[in-house]
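Prompt: May I have another protein with tokenized structure?
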Amino acid sequence: MEIKTTITNRSGQVLDITYRDIDSELDFKDKKIVGVHAYCFHKDKLVIVYAESKGYWTPPGGGVEEGETAQEAIRREIKEETNMNVLKQRFIGYQDISEQKGILSQARAVCIVEPHGDFTVDPDGEITEIKLIDPKEYKKYFDWGVVGDRLMERALEIKSQMQSELDYVN
């Protein structure tokens, strides 16, 4: 599925977005992924993080570092921002954001996670709180419009498949 829409960034600029469903990182083709976010589930709860400096809740994520794959960035960001380990992950989509400096591509994934221990501190100091919420209540915390709705729909479908696969192995 492809969705074309716009967003208004924190600077007030209206940006064009093209979102596409994917089934694996192979669907990125030659895209340079610069950012990632993951819809993370621990049991039946969605993991979200709060950055006091930014003033909003979001799924864990951030930038892809030099020499890092999108898959590695997701695992690193989740570990840093939540102190959780990724048990299973799968890419579900990406979006191209048209900015003045060019097109920025961001990947979206769904993950099954488990706590590695208590959350103490995000090394970057941005994340100040973590919550596990009922996925049906995500719009109380963040609303990414029609793209966010599609991502949540896919995340819940794929989470069920991934959980069944993990249960079968264990």
